[in-house]
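quick one, 256 residues, struct below
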Amino acid sequence: MELFDTHCHLDVTEFEVDRDLVLEHSRAQGINEILVPAIDAAGWNKLLTLCQTNAGLYPALGLHPVFIDAHRDEHLTELKTRLALTRPIAVGEIGLDYYLPDLDKSRQLKIFEAQLKLARDADLPVVLHVRKAHDQVISSLRRIQVKGGIVHAFNGSAQQADHYIEMGFKLGFGGTMTYERSNKIRKLAKQLPLEVIVLETDAPDMVVAQHRGERNSPEYLIHCLAALSELRGEPPEALAAQTTRNAHDVFKISTH
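---
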């Protein structure tokens, strides 16, 4: 089986001591491709180097909404340059987080929409972080039309899912699916068309139920696949093939 983890922060310090081993274990499970999304401008160099020196790792560059206090207007100028020079496969992780009360919403929106415009101009898809802000994000996407992307850790309604799908987005499902009480997420994973679903871990965060309390890892993507297989009543091999195809499709990765 070939699997694609479409969201894994493999560059962060939590993986500093055993990153090579984690990659080895992941590849042994068939997880040969991983998207590594950026958090802030300070981490771009390290992230790009990591992806350049490891086959199957793909970079996304962007400014994460949760770290809004670290972002400066000049980082947007730098991002524009980086997108032109390094050609990552996506702009991300970008978006809006209206769940955490202390984050400046207007500043988030400004930075988010500026990055959407950069993605549009660079003809790149986006990797979205959205919490308690789906309607605003959908509104922004309708005005600033980008080349699709992934709504990471999708947690919206079926109606909101339809809006994203209409705009060419895939929806990311991960560790939350492995928890029996995650009724809403599990129902969506079961009912949405398979052509719009991609798998992700969000490691080192959002750990699967089987490793509750531990650091999450891309090698645990197999548990997400198993949960999806159980929910949909479809063989894991078929789900692995289609979700990987979906990731290749949205990121324009040639498999030839």
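The chain has one domain: 3-251.
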